[in-house]
Amino acid sequence: MNTETTSQQTGGYELVSDNRAAVEAMLNYVPVPAPTMIARAEAVFVMVADLDDLGVWLQARGGVIHVSSAGDGLELWTLLTTTPKRGDGSSVPVRVSVPVPMGEIVMAYILAAVVA
């Protein structure tokens, strides 16, 4: 086994754990829904139930929304946001997603956050 590879893998696991801990800490004082959360080294991915839940995240944390086709009449709406800044000035990227039927009526404040 290569020590460089082991070091990189360990660092990746530590970063995943650190990212998860940062989001869990935020959830203790920011009341946003996070029924499914998957931590990765690059970001924490949260899946919510509906557009109302996405709107709660948008109002609490801000950010921009990307909309992409998910096929079969669905779109995937993803809010790109972050945790609050930590003591060292860093924050963790958070990606909050929800599948939405194409043509669904969407609240104006959510539509305003969609980027082209």
Any key phrases for this structure?
single chain; 5-stranded mixed beta sheet; 116 residues; alpha+beta; globular
Strand and helix layout:
Layout: H1 3-27, E1 36-39, E2 44-47, H2 51-61, E3 64-71, E4 74-82, E5 93-101, H3 108-111
Report on the structure:
Mean pLDDT is 91; it is low at 1-9. The protein is built from 3 helices and 5 strands; from the N terminus they run H-E-E-H-E-E-E-H. It is an alpha+beta fold and 116 residues long. The longest helix is centred in the first third of the chain and has 25 residues, at 3-27. It has helices at 3-27, 51-61, 108-111; strands at 36-39, 44-47, 64-71, 74-82, 93-101. Strand 3 and strand 4 form a beta hairpin. The N and C termini lie far apart (46 Å). It has one domain. A 5-stranded mixed β-sheet has the order 1-2-5-4-3.
Compact summary:
By secondary structure, the protein is an alpha+beta fold. The protein is 34% helix and 29% strand.
Compute the number of structural domains.
1
Fraction in beta strands: 25-35%
**SSE series:** HEEHEEEH
Which structural class best describes the helix and strand composition? alpha+beta
Q: Low-confidence stretches at least 5 residues in length (pLDDT < 50)?
A: 1-9
Annotation field: number of helices = 3
Assembly level = single chain
- Percent of residues in helices: 25-40%
Neighbour order of strands in the largest sheet = 1-2-5-4-3
Record field, number of beta strands = 5
How big is the Rg?
A: 16 Å
The largest sheet, given as strand count, sense and whether it forms a barrel, is:
5 strands, mixed
- Measured between the Cα atoms of the first and last residue, the distance is 46 Å
**Overall outline:** globular
Average pLDDT reading: 91
